[in-house]
Amino acid sequence: MDHELTLRVDGAEHRLSVDPRTSLLDALRQRLGNTSPKKGCDHGQCGSCTVLVDGVRVLACLTLAVTRDGSEVVTADGLSAGPPGSGGDHPLHRAFIDEDAFQCGYCTPGQVCSAAGMLDEFARGRPSVVTGDLGADPELDDAEIAERMSGNLCRCGAYPGIRAAVARVGREREGTR
Amino acid sequence: MTEMLEHRAIGADLPRRDGAEKVRGTARYADESPAERPAYCRIVQAPLARGRITGVDPAVAEASGGVLAVLTPRSPGGRGAAEQLADTSDAEYAILQDDEVHFRGQVVAVVVAETFEQARHAADLVEVTYDEQPGDTLFSAERNDLYRPEQVESGDPPDSSEGDVDAALEAGPVRIRHTYTTPMLHNNPMEPHATTALWEPDGHGGAGSLTLWDSTQSVHAVGTTVSGVLGLDPEQVRVVCPYVGGGFGSKGIPHQNVVTAGMAARAVPGRPVRLPLTRQQTFSLAGYRPPTVQRVALAADADGRLTAIANDVVEQTSRVKEFAEQTVLPARTMYAAPNRRTSTRLAALDVPIPSWMRAPGECPGMFAPEVAMDELAHELGVDPIVLRERNEPETDPDSGLPFSSRNVLACLHRGAERFGWAGRDPRPGERVHGGWRWGTGVAASVYPTSRMPVSEAEITRVDGRYVARIGAADLGTGTWTALVQIAADALEVAVDEVDVLIGDTDHPEASVAGGSTGINTWGSTLVAAAQEFRKRFGDTPADGDSARAGVPPNDAAERYAMSAYGAQFAEVAVHADTGEIRVPRLYGTFAVGRVVNPRMARSQLVGGMTMGLGMALHENSLFDPRTGHVVNHDLAEYHVPTQADVADLRADWIDEHDPHVNAMGTKGIGEIGIVGTAAAVANAVWHATGTRVRDLPVTLDAVL
């Protein structure tokens, strides 16, 4: 039996009725036609499906759509410098292009969303497993970025470019704080 | 000598033309192609390595919600039997044609339903019964049924022999004789193989037309294969693929999934059908690098000059279709020695069909010899780079031809300088600090430079711009951008006056994006088309003026041996207590001819090295011979390198001008990055620990 729910996706509100077995990823891709998040494994192992749900990075393939009724979902396509879906580039979009932080592009929207979520977690002082001093504000160095971005696989091996892109946006953000 | 293009756009550090779409996720991949009311297809796979299907009952699945069709094998026949295929000469494509099970994971039924969830559920409800037979699945070099293939995949002979290797080994005075192994490996592009297929019975003048939006390294190969198998005129099949979410060889030869998608679409005329393989399904249906056992023998005089090189290779193929990886090739060409021997023997097993994986042959075939060279250097007490200097051939040892350019030593020297190799303490297991044992290692890289025989391009003046069309592919390699740079130089105009359209069989036929031949072939084709265009229309063409040309043959290939080369340097740290292996530094320096676009070239080389790092330390398809099953068939258990595994990993190149390869001066860069990487890491692990590991991947249990 299908379930009714409301999702706000990239700034636009959608009412839809879904099979309770439908993942948030399939709801976005197959029901709403938003194919920005990708399906690389469907098992929460690769990170290609990463989106922001209510501001937090989430694996859309491991999330049942019916559990997110009323949520705000932002994909890499909706990510922008302003409100979700308001158009224009987010600094991460530019940085990924400038640092050639991708090749085939399939993991890229997930990387971009994950980076946005991760920079926010970092800004709020959340430590990671490689953070040395839990009492001090962590520094956004290569090791921190690598650790915090390791849930997003890239088979093309664009990791150095991804680190450079995330570091650049992180530094810009720190400069404006 | 080839007439060289004047380089203006070639060499420019331009961003990717498809960058904006890719970072937002709006670039459309095969499973995302526009489709009205798509249905979903799900494959049912055989759960045994060998046997006979005794019955298929689709009744429960058919009664399940939303099911549109269930395709079953023609034998035992009955309801839902699949269509009879026109050409089953390639057993890989003989899908649902008989009751034989050749390997675990083979397609035994196909479900089409209204939704993804319904198809997935119904696939579980198809009842298939089997007469199971004992599967012959155990790969071993000791088997007594090994055979010699007629040729290896590259078309070269399986064996070679010159001089007397055994006598040279007897004479010594320095000998290395060891067995090295590489495991079964899976390509695992991030986008699993996927197709959207639409059969329109009224299309093509009533004969029917099939459109396949497929994730492929060659739209034309898919079109040719599928039309042949289904008995259609090639004109009836159109294949579209603007973007590929990685391939690494696994999307080079069409596999069962795309033929299955075509059959499913024909079962529901007028409905587009989406068939995305699951990650798990790709492990049995999309090819893999077969495991190899390599017996390498080197003999040298006291000065370190090789007197003999041998690599006797045993590797796996499937019983249903032969795939003979060309692992033997590097030992034939890399170093000079008067006595040389290679051999290829295959074990044909009830296993999934192997296929191309990044640098098939050269990649595993450089691991064993490059570790053996490191062992020889230690035995002789010479630096590994010096050993390679002493064995640098003047002409290609295999063909006797001069090299069009060979800069492996330049790469070793430049790389050594960047890496800080000078003054290295050669003793193994001597450097412990911070609880870690430190070491460094080096290995060489090689990958042949070639051009495919068939490709065609068309250039047309449209609205004051130049629009080139060629059915090429961009796997993330940068084709969308690099071909514009080449076409612009060939037409002697700026890049912003040029568009190049790729990825569609409606464009002129292009060769596969494989064997590092893409830019060499398509670029040469565009140059020929540009010359034809200028010859006919001059510098002031009118709108609509159009010219075509095919790829010119390269006569120089008969006079010169052509390859790209490289040198890779690894620094490893092995934890003294746990054996954990890290690679803090991995530097590669390459000689790849002219680089068309530096940022994209660097990304490809770094990507190849990263995959090589995975081969060195992480990747291993664990095949269970009892069940014929790769037990770690997902990305949680098949470990590709993650962000945190890759530390200071860099690639650069020397300035190389080769006037013989093609008009651009390019050699191809997609594959050389993975060649030699695993040997460099394994050699560094030995230097750190004193433990020589000859079996990949190098894991902590081997060094504790």
UniProtKB/TrEMBL annotation, chain A:
The keyword Iron-sulfur applies. It holds the Pfam family Fer2_2. PANTHER family: ALDEHYDE OXIDOREDUCTASE IRON-SULFUR-BINDING SUBUNIT PAOA (PTHR45331:SF1), OXIDOREDUCTASE, IRON-SULPHUR BINDING SUBUNIT-RELATED-RELATED (PTHR45331). It comes from the Bacteria. GO terms for cellular component: periplasmic space. CDD domains: fer2. It comes from Pseudonocardia ammonioxydans. Residues 3-79 form the 2Fe-2S ferredoxin-type domain. This is Xanthine dehydrogenase YagT iron-sulfur-binding subunit. Keywords: 2Fe-2S, Iron, Iron-sulfur, Metal-binding, Oxidoreductase. InterPro entries: 2Fe-2S-bd, 2Fe-2S-bd_dom_sf, 2Fe-2S_ferredoxin-like_sf, 2Fe-2S_ferredoxin-type, 2Fe2S_fd_BS, Aldehyde_Oxdr_Iron-Sulfur, Beta-grasp_dom_sf. Pathway: Alkaloid degradation; nicotine degradation. One of its GO terms (molecular function) is oxidoreductase activity, acting on the aldehyde or oxo group of donors.
Automatic annotation (TrEMBL), chain B:
Residues 1-34, 140-165 are annotated as: Disordered. The keyword Oxidoreductase applies. It comes from the Bacteria. Keywords: Molybdenum, Oxidoreductase. One of its GO terms (molecular function) is oxidoreductase activity. Residues 24-134 form the Aldehyde oxidase/xanthine dehydrogenase a/b hammerhead domain. It holds the Pfam family Ald_Xan_dh_C. This is Xanthine dehydrogenase YagR molybdenum-binding subunit. The lineage of its organism: Bacteria, Bacillati, Actinomycetota, Actinomycetes, Pseudonocardiales.
